[in-house]
Each structure stands twice: as C-alpha cells, then as structure tokens.
Design brief:
single chain; about 80 residues; mainly alpha; 2 domains; 3 helices
Length: about 80
C-alpha cells in the first residue's frame, strides 16, 4: 500500500492525471498477484510442498543453509 501512495504523490508532483494512473495500478496489482500465485504453485509442485518447510513456509527456526540442499537435491541439479 505505501508504494501506491508514493506513486500517487509522484504523479501529483509531475502532474500526471490520476484517471490514467489508477487503472494502471489496479492492472499491475492484479497481474502481480496472479504471477506470484502461479510462481508459488509452480514451486510447490516442482520442489514439493513438504520439502520447503523452513525455506518458504513459516518455520522461523529454519535456516536457509539447512533447507537449500533439499531444494537442490529435489530439482536434480548439483
């Protein structure tokens, strides 16, 4: 939300009409939401939802170095 407010403030200073800016922000918000949802689902199917615990899903005790070998082993790269 702060990013959109900053965009409105910048548009006001540069004198861009808000009628042009509002649809662009709405379209980019919808596209960004869909893209992040697709990326999350793709990662869950590709890597496996059970193997990313602590890497993406809420384990604050999880360490990235501990979770990374699991992701690398599942993807088949060395």
């Amino acid at each position: 939300m702060p990013n959109q407010l900053e965009a409105f403030k910048i548009a006001e200073r540069v004198r861009i009409p808000l009628r042009r800016l509002v649809p662009l922000i709405l379209i980019s918000t919808v596209l960004g939401t869909l893209a992040s949802f697709w990326a999350y689902l793709h990662l869950m199917y590709h890597v496996g939802a059970l193997t990313v615990h602590g890497y993406l899903i809420g384990d604050r005790r999880g360490d990235l170095r501990r979770a990374t070998p699991t992701v690398v082993e599942q993807s088949g790269t060395s």
